[in-house]
Design goal:
- This protein is α/β, with parallel strands linked by helices.
- The protein is globular.
- The two termini are about 15 Å apart.
- The site of fructose -6-phosphate has 14 residues, from loops.
């Protein structure tokens, strides 16, 4: 089941998403959070850090599992997803860094690292709440459009559209890694609850395809239609195509 919350803009989307994550942490202080990188969650992470600073929530016993990591980037590389998480969230909250997990982009045997990661997430009992951004091509994690869904954590070749979208963070598109390690849809669908966030008109087509289109690996996010507890928090621009089609949203 999918519940859609519409917010006015990025700032209110971020606050709403932060409140949903905070509620999970308050309900279960030792919850497992599935976390995402990218531009979309930055505002929510900032708000969560403020809530920790204000003494309203604590990440002391929280465990986290991130969706993905670029293959070949060291954790100290400023575009690695480990670096992003430290910089945007972990360094600003009271989480024990030993309880945070990101796939190892430097693993000599990437396939073995993927298997280790799946086993790890399973051993933690899967995510209680999995946060997702949405690619303009409908990707979740780095599960790119394909002719099949991949269940396990795997090494993926990034599409030109994703490389172009991420080139803004690198000196040039040539520097964007061509591969990544990503959770498959198995881990994502095993999360007890999924929170997908999206902002801006460039996500409108993907959001519409994900929740109003057919369930197809050509739009990986569409598999979320089969999940029993999905919350979408998105701003008016990102939801414009759904609302124009008459899909009911909560405000
Ligand atoms: C990041 C991730 C990606 C992003 C997606 C949207 O960990 O898994 O699926 O969520 O590419 O990125 P932004 O938020 O930058 O538009």
């Amino acid at each position: 089941m999918v519940k859609i919350y519409q917010t006015a803009d990025y700032a209110s989307m971020s606050r709403r998403a932060a409140h949903i994550i905070a509620a999970e942490v308050i309900r279960n202080p030792s919850c497992v959070l599935g976390l995402a990188t990218g531009s979309t969650p930055v505002g929510a992470y900032k708000r969560l850090a403020e809530m920790v600073a204000e003494g309203d929530i604590s990440f002391k016993n929280v465990k986290s599992v991130n969706l993905d990591e670029y293959k070949g980037l060291a954790p100290t590389h400023d575009q690695s997803y480990r670096y992003f998480m430290q910089d945007n969230l972990f360094n600003h909250v009271d989480i024990d860094v030993a309880n945070t997990n990101v796939p190892d982009g430097l693993a000599a045997d990437a396939e073995a690292e993927c298997a280790r990661y799946d086993a790890l997430v399973e051993s933690l009992g899967w995510a209680d709440l999995q946060l997702l951004g949405l690619g303009r091509n409908g990707h979740i994690g780095f599960n790119e459009p394909d002719d099949h869904f991949t269940k396990e954590t795997h090494v993926v070749d990034l599409t030109e559209s994703t490389i172009d979208a991420n080139a803004r963070f690198f000196a040039s598109a040539d520097e964007v890694p061509r591969q990544a390690l990503t959770m498959g849809v198995g881990c994502i669908m095993a999360a007890r609850r999924v929170l997908l966030i999206a902002s801006g008109a460039d996500k409108a087509d993907a959001l519409y395809a994900a929740f109003c289109g057919p369930i197809t690996p050509q739009c990986p996010a569409s598999i979320l239609q089969l999940h029993s507890d999905v919350v979408v928090v998105a701003d008016e621009a990102a939801l414009s195509k759904l609302t124009a089609a008459g899909v009911a949203v909560c405000k």
